[in-house]
Design brief:
By secondary structure, the chain is of the alpha/beta class. It is built from eleven helices and eleven strands. Helices cover 42% and strands 18% of the residues. Strand 8 and strand 9 form a beta hairpin. It starts with a strand and ends with a helix. The structure holds zinc ion.
């Protein structure tokens, strides 16, 4: 990456504090990725909030997204002890909160993740893939999905994969192959970070993801017995099975995404929406 910077004025989307930040010129000189996401950590602009800013290749701010996650501070002793080890906190420091949401999403939903690394990056591909695998139930582990790229010039990056997450180790996210907000990832990470013990953190993430996958399996078992099913009927059946009032459309969309990416595109096409049908009649 070149050493010239572009000055960008950004505003905290929550309280409106404005400040300028420096963005490497190279981030904008690439035309391949269009609008990119830049993570703005706490204290970079606002002392209280962290957020994402969407910037196009002309350097114009196109929008913001809040990140609602506070990281519990740990004692300096615990901090020193954890130094150099790979754990959630260190990973968040390297990739940013939103970067970690994205990596977790990519891992669960089986999207390849390409990370453009800088000279100071200390983890290997093997370690990253192992850590990623650790949050999944065993039956979904083992495939290599995280790749490190050595090319410092973003415009020379050759990733043809439209389905890939592409980011760097400096809080810039160039491509996310999904449209959903990363609410699930935010929620499970928040829960995990409330505890200090690293192993317990990992266990909690695993549990939350396993619970989600058991919902997926339940939906698949329903789909295997029918030719078609309406979304709202499926939501009703699933809610009953889970003994909750009503699962959200967001959750159902996540389940569909998981089936599509990890199990079968064909089986997910059995889920019909009444709205779609109504529109096709018109
Ligand atoms: Zn703020």
């Amino acid at each position: 990456m070149s050493n010239t910077f572009k000055v960008l004025e950004v505003k905290c989307p929550i309280c409106g504090i404005a400040k300028t930040i420096n963005i490497p010129e190279a981030v904008f000189s690439q035309k391949k990725f269009g609008t990119i996401k830049i993570q703005v950590p706490i204290n970079a602009v606002c002392p209280k909030h962290q957020f994402i800013v969407f910037v196009d290749t002309k350097g114009i701010v196109r929008g913001y997204e809040k990140i609602d996650l506070h990281i519990v501070t740990i004692s300096p002793e615990a901090e020193r002890e954890a130094e150099g080890r790979i754990n959630l906190r260190n990973l968040i420091q390297t990739f940013g909160t939103y970067g970690i949401f994205s990596l977790i999403h990519a891992k669960i939903f089986n999207y390849p993740a390409y990370i453009i690394k800088d000279d100071f990056f200390e983890y290997s591909e093997e370690i990253l893939n192992k850590v990623g695998d650790n949050i999944l139930p065993e039956s979904f582990r083992g495939s290599k999905t995280i790749y490190l790229l050595d090319e410092p010039d973003i415009s020379k990056i050759k990733v043809k994969d439209k389905d890939a997450l592409i980011m760097d180790t400096q809080q810039h996210i160039f491509q996310t192959p999904w449209k959903e907000k990363l609410k699930f990832e935010e929620q499970i990470l928040k829960r995990a970070l409330e505890i200090i013990d690293e192993q317990e953190q990992q266990k909690l993430l695993q549990q939350d993801i396993s619970r989600f996958i058991s919902e997926v399996n339940y939906v698949v078992s329903i789909l295997e017995t029918v030719d078609n099913i309406y979304e709202d009927d499926l939501i009703e059946q699933l809610s009953k099975a889970l003994k909750i009032k009503k699962i959200s459309t967001y959750r159902l969309n996540l389940i569909k995404e998981f089936i599509r990416r990890n199990i079968s595109v064909k089986i997910v096409s059995k889920i019909k929406s009444r709205v779609g049908e109504f529109l096709s009649v018109i």
